[in-house]
Amino acid sequence: MAKRVTAEDVARSAGVSKWTVIRAFTPGASIAEKSRLRVLEAAENLNYRPNLLARSLATNLTHQVAILIDDFKNPHKLPVLEILTWQLQSEGLLTVLININEHFDHVQALLDAGQRQVDAIILFGTAFRPEMLEDDRIQGGAPLYVLARDSQIPNVPAITCDTPLAMRELCEYFSSKGYRRPAFLSGAKTLSTALGRRRAFNAFWEAHSSKPVLGVSAASYSSGHGFEAARILFQETPREQWPDLLMCENDALAFGAIDYVRSTLKLRIPDDIAIAGFDNTPLAASPAYDLTTYEQPAIEMVAAILSMILGREPRENRAFKGKLVSRSTA
C-alpha cells in the first residue's frame, strides 16, 4: 500500500511548520492568507487530506450526526433523507444512519450514537417514549432533535410541518367540495410523538358537523397495512354509514386504501368516496393514484435543524407551513 501523506509531508513541501498546516485546515484558526494558500497548494499536489479522527480528538467534535429511523416502509422517508444528508454534507457533516427495529430499540440506538461521539442526534419520524430519554446511561450526550414529529420534551426541539394549519387547510378544502361523512385512517398509536393529524382532523369536523368521525388505525405506515385497515373500516361499518371522505395520515396508507376501495369494493374515486393522503411522496403524482395530499416543507425544515446544530439559531420548536396539493382523488 502507498504511504499515507501526513501533515509533516505537507509542511516540508510548503516550507512551513506542522502547526501551520493544521491551522490551515482548521475552520476559524488564525493564519495568514499567504501561508494558508501555500499549504493548500502543497496539499493538493501531494493529494493530502487531513485526518478527521485525529482532529476530533483535539477539538472534541467529530462532525458526525446520527439519524435514527424506525419506519423504512414509509415512502416519505427517502426523499427527506436525501435532503437531510445533502444539507449536512454541504456543511462538512457526515451522517451515521441507525435503523431502529425490534432487535435494536431507541435506548440502544442512543447509546450506540453516544459511543461514536456524534455531535448531534436526529430522531427522524420515530415514535419514542419520554422515559427512554431519562435513562441515566444517555444523560449528558449529544443534543437531540426531533424531525417531522411533535415533541413536548424539554430541551429536545421539534422541527415539524404546522399540523393544525395543514389539517385546517385540508378540512376546509374537503368541506368546500361538499364532503360530510369523514373518516380518518391513522398509523399505529404512539405514546408521545404522535403526529397530531387525527386529533386536528377530528376537532375540525366535530366543530362543523353533527356526525361522528369514523376512525381506524393501521399497524404501520405501509400500503399493505393501509389496505388492511381500509378493509376493517368498511367491513365493520354498516353500508349506509360508509364515509364519503377517507383522510389518511400519510400517502403510503392512502395508496393501500385506494387499492382496497378499487379492487375489492369496486367503488369509484372520488365519485363514491374521496381519499387523501399527507406528504406528497413521488408516487402520489403517478396517474395510477393522482392523490390529493399535503406537502411538507422538507427543505425549510431541514435547513432549520441544520442551523440549530451549527449554532446559528436557538434550539427551539419550529413549525413550518406546507402546501395542499389538489389532485383527482378528492
Automatic annotation (TrEMBL):
- Pfam family example for this protein? LacI
* Alphabetical list of Gene3D superfamilies matching this protein: 3.40.50.2300, lambda repressor-like DNA-binding domains
Q: Which CDD domains match?
A: HTH_LacI (cd01392), PBP1_LacI-like (cd06278)
Q: What's the domain of life for this entry?
A: Bacteria
Q: Which residues form the HTH lacI-type domain?
A: 5-59
| UniProt GO molecular function | DNA-binding transcription factor activity; transcription cis-regulatory region binding
State the protein's name.
Transcriptional regulator, LacI family
Q: Which organism is it from?
A: Neorhizobium galegae bv. orientalis str. HAMBI 540
Lineage of the species this protein comes from:
Bacteria, Pseudomonadati, Pseudomonadota, Alphaproteobacteria, Hyphomicrobiales
